[in-house]
Amino acid sequence: MTPEDERHPDDVQQHLREVQDLLARHKLVEGLVHRQDMPRHDLVENLVHKQHVAELQHKLDELHPADIAYILEALPLDERLFVWDLVKAERDGEILLEVSDAVRESLIETMDTHELKAAAETLDADELADLAPDLPPEVIQDVFQSLDSEEREQLRAAMSYPEDSVGALMDFDMVTVREDVTLEVVLRYLRRFEELPDHTDKLFVVDRDDHLKGILTLEKLLISDPELEVSEVMRREPVISFQPDDDASEAAQAFERYDLVSAPVIDADKRVIGRLTVADAVDFIREESEHEILAHAGLREEEDIFASVWDSVKNRWAWLAVNLVTAFIASRVIGAFENSIEKLVALAALMPIVAGIGGNSGNQTITMIVRAIAMGQVEQSARNRLLKKEVGVAVFNGIVWGGLLGVLAWWLYGSVSLGLVMTAAMTLNLLLAATAGVLIPMIRIRLGADPAIGSSVLITALTDSGGFFIFLGLATLFLL
Amino acid sequence: MTPEDERHPDDVQQHLREVQDLLARHKLVEGLVHRQDMPRHDLVENLVHKQHVAELQHKLDELHPADIAYILEALPLDERLFVWDLVKAERDGEILLEVSDAVRESLIETMDTHELKAAAETLDADELADLAPDLPPEVIQDVFQSLDSEEREQLRAAMSYPEDSVGALMDFDMVTVREDVTLEVVLRYLRRFEELPDHTDKLFVVDRDDHLKGILTLEKLLISDPELEVSEVMRREPVISFQPDDDASEAAQAFERYDLVSAPVIDADKRVIGRLTVADAVDFIREESEHEILAHAGLREEEDIFASVWDSVKNRWAWLAVNLVTAFIASRVIGAFENSIEKLVALAALMPIVAGIGGNSGNQTITMIVRAIAMGQVEQSARNRLLKKEVGVAVFNGIVWGGLLGVLAWWLYGSVSLGLVMTAAMTLNLLLAATAGVLIPMIRIRLGADPAIGSSVLITALTDSGGFFIFLGLATLFLL
């Protein structure tokens, strides 16, 4: 990062506005050039045009890659591609790493093989591995050929780990030292570097065969007497380290819990093979929580807000299809009670209340349980305790809110028994919601499934069909 | 952190299991002691009991405060308080900082003024400020008296900033140097420290009056010739810095975007008054996303999963109450069409489909728009473009899915016109959902409100009532 890259955080919005401004002016001029046919003006307008483009280019050259990525994401497709063309080719790689998947796709589509190869060649092996799934195979092949054997090995390794593993997040930029040298020697060794890898807060102490012996924090290196040996100030094993097959989510939680900046990644033989940094952990945490929020609303992935209608439809259709099926089932449950509704039309007006409140209450329960499970804090042994608590909440809410609605139904339709059926149906549907909210995630865990995926769909489907069935069933039994 | 604190990440689960194990054994013995009245056995059982307690205590002494916090959160109240009593008093403060708000309350309730004071006195000013809202006023008063004047000033400052500001997150542990000294002098200065503040990756270069002149990264300090002066290797202003009134969310995004480890916090005169670290940023990101996920399900705050029924009811009632009101309104919309339903009971079975799918589709749109707004990537100027896209998606889905449902309705009830009404109502409700999904957050932003809060409730209320109205209205017009 050059000094120009560092700014006050508010400034990224400022950057965006400036770029939009320049684009607007640029467009205006371009519009004039096209509309007017007077050749005399051409030259002047072309000059003005060129001047704006140069200004924009200068502005972009000054920006941090992450800021350019932010601006690209915020621009509609035509403006985005115009700006992308102005970005210096040697910065393409790092910017592609920063943009969201959807925007990355839109940028890569416009680049030819040659440009993509040039962009890829500016990246490290671990960065290349992140980008690889979006690149055409022939580009990857070419880039692979251009790497030296160590980088090839790293790229092969990085690409071999599943997406949510530590191996997929790690980089290969670590500084290692031996334990039998003095700190003075380490200090002299570091002075031979032109720069240290980002987020170097500790050096990894290894033996001749790269086995992890411990860590030497820069803090210890700086505050200790340089005459001391590394072995005297290092923190010995066991230190916090990860294996490439470890779950990335757990590693990110460990970074958060222990306030880590970097940590070694070791293989089964305790050989240091890579490094995980807090930047990777933060990115992972952000992506994970975004994924959860989007999944909740049935969005498959982060959407480029300026995506085409067709791309948006594709991103959203799966959830709508599921929803269609569950809504249809609920509708058939109602259909089975059409005779009852014909006799007492008030049922049609009241039934969505029972279903809706059951759905919301069930979502509260399942959200809480799924979160607690994700944090690893719920064992199967706690099931009965949780069930008891949720059932208690359901009975309370059923009597209080169900009672209130029962009174309203009585008041609206002048029937005490209709009010009582309403209260009973509310309570029963809340009980169904509470039980399912606790049991569905627990059962899915036992079956080895991710309890978060579609939990909201499942519980809503159940409380909708269940709510209709309970309410209309009770009404048929007691009112008709 | 002592060496014992650092473990493989999986181990926190392991720790939890071990503690639960010890607790189970402990309970068994305690049960025996209480149940049996034979005095002869008392001594032996007491010994076994004591041995288990000692083992548990030893285990706890070895654990990182964050791990103890994790275990406390995962234990039911009685076991939680038993473990809490075994934790060494001098560690109470740091553990209270790590546990969730709900669990912190449950722990503080059991501590007397004296214990709370002792715990609070082990903390730094910025940590105290975090804990203060949960402490009784007399404890804060006492602790305040025991601070020296600098710490008092820091505590006063930290407590004066609103919760979501940089000021509330910052700490006061910074190392500053002057620019006119050599790196050799800086290195000697650092060797006088017993330890450096956590997350020190740079020193802040200041003048005599603490005005920020630039930063000296540990990297530059380590790789540069010690004969050089600080001014020759430091990065000069402007560097990334924050002001205490800055939005914490934007600061956290800046940490993520620029991969920062620490950054200075300066006042309006550019005087360094504190420091923000990546650990604070990570905690903030995690809390923010948790808050969003919980708010989505209508949970006011993170819930202690072993909370009492009453605490759970309190945490959830607000959303249920709102939901009750919106469901009641939707029910009255249906009530207005009771005549139509009486004549054509199929309407009762089909209407929840129209409402439900509109709700889900609206939630997809609003979730995407709210997220894009939160990232600062949607300007009011993009409104028409987004509206056009969402309307396009709605028309597409209305024709495809609505058409499918129309065919199903035709097939079920043998009425082409009922099918056509179904398709038309679906399309119109999806259009309502798309328009509201774009406009509601944009209007709320213009009114200065947070577009995220209750966005899901609002859109669902609108698409429920609207869906019923559109479907039953169209049916009344064209079918009866």
Automatic annotation (TrEMBL), chains A, B:
Going by the UniProt record, its keywords in alphabetical order are: CBS domain, Cell membrane, Magnesium, Membrane, Metal-binding, Transmembrane, Transmembrane helix, Transport
Q: How does the protein associate with the membrane?
A: Multi-pass membrane protein
List residues traversing the bilayer: 317-337, 391-413, 419-440, 452-479
Principal localization reads membrane
Function (record text):
Acts as a magnesium transporter.
Family designation: Belongs to the SLC41A transporter family.
| NCBIfam families xrefs | mgtE
- Give the protein's recorded name: Magnesium transporter MgtE
Q: Source species, please? A: Pseudothauera rhizosphaerae
GN (gene name): mgtE
